[in-house]
Write a structure and sequence with these properties.
This protein is of the alpha+beta class. The protein is built from three helices and five strands. The structure holds adenosine monophosphate. Its EC number is 2.1.1.-.
């Protein structure tokens, strides 16, 4: 399995398609998921190429999980979430659709289930959650 430079997250990293950015540092980028499974669903990726956790280096994984923790804390505080799921899929049979390593950060609320995947979110609502998450980043 090789890395495809034309995957959608590589295009976001190159600025070829837009994203609602939340945070970036030298190694990672966090942005909003456009098909959110919960309100405030966001993604964390490494800036360097790797397909998923199977070919990632320990350094890539460490950087991405550190940023995922930062975003998890921000969604808890900024969106007043009751809990947060951090999850990651490897290869299509496991549910991976975009083949650039990413961790999902999903704010959870008491009694509210995740929506089915693949439903486009409301852009104004996503922008509103993004503003609150950014404001809660420390
Ligand atoms: P996965 O199934 O783990 O590969 O998840 C890929 C995720 O990327 C899904 O939650 C999609 O909604 C999300 N996604 C796909 N295209 C974009 C995009 N252009 N910007 C933000 N999120 C995206």
């Amino acid at each position: 399995m090789s890395y495809d430079n034309d995957n959608v997250f590589a295009k976001i990293l190159r600025g070829e398609i837009p994203s609602t950015k939340l945070y970036e540092d030298a190694e990672t980028l966090a942005f909003m998921d456009i098909m959110p499974r919960t309100d405030g669903h966001c993604l964390v990726i490494p800036k360097t190429p790797c397909r998923n956790a199977l070919d990632a280096t320990p350094d890539q994984l460490a950087a991405v999980i550190a940023t995922a923790q930062k975003l998890a804390k921000a969604v808890m505080a900024g969106l007043d979430a009751d809990g947060v799921v951090i999850e990651q899929y490897n290869e299509a049979p496991a549910g991976q659709e975009v083949f650039h390593l990413h961790f999902h950060v999903l704010p959870m609320r008491e009694g509210v289930k995740m929506r089915a995947p693949g439903q486009m979110g409301d852009f104004d609502a996503i922008a509103g959650y993004a503003e609150k998450i950014r404001a809660a980043l420390v």
